[in-house]
Amino acid sequence: MLKYSRVFGLVVFVFLFAMCNQKSKNESDKETILKGSIDITVDETVKPIVDDQVAVFEGTYYDAKITVKPKSEAEVINDLLNQKTEVVVTTRNLTKEELQRFEKSKIKPRVTPFATDAIALISNKSNNDTLIALKTVLDLMQGKPDGKIKGLVFDNPNSSTVRFMKELAKVKEIPTSGVFSFKTNEEVIKFVSENDGMIGIVGVNWLSQPSPNMIETIKKINILSVKGLKGDKYYDPSQTDIALKEYPLARDLFIINCQGYSGLGMGFASFIAGDIGQRIVLKSGLMPVKTPTRKLKIRSQIINDKE
């Protein structure tokens, strides 16, 4: 009888040991703000800056894995509303109607602005005129071409750039003549580099941070200076003109988190909005929401370290 009791006790011990190990394993696999894995759906026009943020974030927190999925703006918002994704990066805030849909699902989105981006107008390098009036572009979108440009080239009919320009032109649909679209910003840049007289409309992030395979292609295009609807001056999609709010095609960037708990989405949003994330934005050529500070040490005399 004593023998059976010892065997039973051993079985119970092994069972409890296994349960404790399983509990420890589950706790170690639990997602936190700095650990776990998550997919982030990103507006394709700003993918380069998000890739940079993810690379540094993962390099700092080794237990974090973030997969970036670029899509058009319409797809990004639809995936968020249909709960196919929980964290997105967009070039606009949620509308009142979209927020109401989340309220019905008892979801409170956390919206964090982290940068100001711009839409850039580009032309073929053979075009010596590097100035363009925004009105010329809007007239073409309204179906009133003046012959100064052959056509406009967008990245995607459902992209944020199309939506932004349609709102400026106050049109519901883009004209079927004189306006073309592809799928990505890279395709637009390549097409413009090979076709004179066309004006490409892309996210400036693709020009300030080109992928290695696009560096030579970008050398074949001009980034145009744009005159707004008011005033006679032309401005560039540069960090300076964006910061001074002079460039007429600037827009804000947001990370929207609908996880509903303290997960990796919250950690990544805090990172982007924090000091390191804002320095990455500044280095990228975009304008951070918070300009990182620099501490200067003033010395009363110069110390010469060389003999």
TrEMBL record:
Residues 35-274 form the PBP domain. Signal peptide: none annotated. SUPFAM superfamilies: Periplasmic binding protein-like II. InterPro entries: PBP_domain, Phosphate_ABC_transporter. Keywords: Signal. It holds the Pfam family PBP_like_2. It comes from the Bacteria. This is Phosphate ABC transporter substrate-binding protein, PhoT family. It comes from Flavobacterium saccharophilum.
